[in-house]
Amino acid sequence: MDKFVIRGGNPLVGTIRVSGAKNSALPCMAAAILTEEEVILENIPQVRDIATEQRLLASMGAEVELGYGSAEHRTTICCRTLSDPVAKYEIVKTMRASSLVLGPLVARAGMARVAMPGGCAIGGRPIDLHIAGLEKMGATITQEHGYLEARADRLRGAHLVFDKITVTGTEDLLMAAVLAEGETLMENCAREPEVTDLATLLIAMGARIEGAGTATIRVQGVPRLHGARHRINPDRIEAGTFLVAGAITRGDLIVADCNPSHLGAVITKLQESGARIDILSPDEIRVQADGPLRAADISTEEYPGFPTDMQAQYMALATQAEGVSVVKENIFENRFMHVQELVRMGANIKLDGRTATVRGPAKLSAAAVMCSDLRASASLVLAALVADGESILDRVYHMDRGYEHIEEKLCGVGAQIQRLGNIFAPKEEEVVAG
Ligand code: EPZ
Q1: Pairing, β 111-115 against β 86-87
Q2: How does pLDDT run across 382-412, given as a tens digit for each residue?
């Protein structure tokens, strides 16, 4: 099991590059199911969830080719034949985003068997809204032996109104709608940039979509889609994580290959906290923080609000800010797994349901801590970068799910991080993931 050894105290200085967005790549890879032709995706991050999705697609009969050398961030997917449209539990249990194949499989093959994802470290993670939408479009859905089976000769366009805003629910049903008979009107949709990225790919494949990125999406179904080439958006959460890293270490960091327009809420909050943020170009942001950090409250909301995927990282920063920061987590019911680990490093955080009260500044001391999920891991890395001494972070495979070569990137701007253990060893202990 891999560990990180991190010695705190170094300000991060220099330029750090952002990879493609895992949460864009996953639905875009699933979209390849919708056509018999090749789909080529560029700027794919080399992270474990992408490898999991490649295994999932290959297990269903897809040809999935990974680029290498100068093309190492490219994947070519061809679903000419889908011999086994089943998302098996062994794969789904390690990545609940596997449910993203549900809509495209039913739309393309008329049937899908997908292991129910089950909960994960941050919450129950139900997919009832995905199921309700497919049933409204005419699919017959049964659940038994931990699997969900969906069948439909051809999905019909429908008027879908989401009870709750769901990112992958919006993506799953958007992919179902593009091949459905007639028009689908989707309301109360997620507005995340990852939805827009997926829609851009689908339109390049011949889909007819209006309104992606807004709460109302209108789709005219078409009989078939063709192949396409598409470049995945930069990862806004990785970029946000690096901005916090520059601020918490009192550094001077340029975050490159990012999209500042996707980071409005995060940039505003960092400026409120006392960091200096300059947009240097359409894909570069500079963060500096040499003065004291100020406490500021956050309340996680759907995009364009403050992202839940940045809550843990922001909390690490709040431990260093002067004053009391109130952190409200409104999206997931259990997304404070990082709190007790931060407290073990010396943070002053009190939990009350979905609200954490952070009092700072607290002097953090290095400790042996345990990663529990993807973004909690990022929070512990940020805390270790300013803790006094050498911290040991265990179960960093959680981090490897969504951050590409994170230790090399951070070492490149002055961090002292060393990975221990064989990153290629099997990870039987992998638990159900976010
Ligand atoms: C996506 O998860 C992201 N994952 C998550 O990122 C992110 O935290 C989340 O959106 C919120 O922004 C991917 O895109 C692969 P939701 P998703 O459906 O789609 C409830 C990371 O760290 N809900 O928007 O699964 C749900 O329980 C990961 O990169 C239902 O009740 O999240 C939650 O409370 C973690 N029924 C809320 O909606 C449903 O059918 C939002 O969940 C679906 C969701």
Answers
A1: parallel
A2: 999 999 999 999 999 999 999 999 999 999 9
For residue 29 the two structure tokens come to: 């890879």
Is residue 120 among the annotated active site residues?
yes
Q: How far apart are CA 28 and CA 231, in angstroms?
A: 10
pLDDT tens, position by position, 317-345: 999 999 999 999 999 999 999 999 999 99
CA distance 6 to 282: 32
Atom of ligand 1 lying closest to residue 132 CA? 40
Burial call 170-200: b when 16+ CB within 10 Å, e when fewer: bbbbbbbbbbbeeebebebbbbbbbbbbbbb
Model confidence at 424, pLDDT cuts 50, 70, 90, reads low
- Could you tell me the pLDDT band of residue 432, with boundaries at 50, 70 and 90? very low
Type and span of the H or E element at 211: none
Q: Is the CB of 402 inside a 6 Å radius of any atom of ligand 1? A: yes
Q: Is 158 helix (H, G, I), strand (E, B) or coil?
A: coil
Catalytic pick among 79, 120, 189, 258: 120
Structural contact between residues 194 and 151, judged by C-beta atoms closer than 8 angstroms: no
Distance CA 22, CA 403 (A): 9
Please state the atom number of ligand 1 nearest to the C-alpha of residue 127.
40
Structure tokens at 365: 């001391």
Q: How far is the CA of 271 from the centre of ligand 1 (A)?
A: 27
Sign of the alpha-carbon dihedral angle for 57, 59, 64, 69: positive
pLDDT of residue 129: 97
Q: Cβ(332) to ligand 1 under 6 A?
A: yes
Question: Cα(259)–Cα(245) distance, rounded to whole angstroms?
Answer: 17
Model-level pTM?
0.96
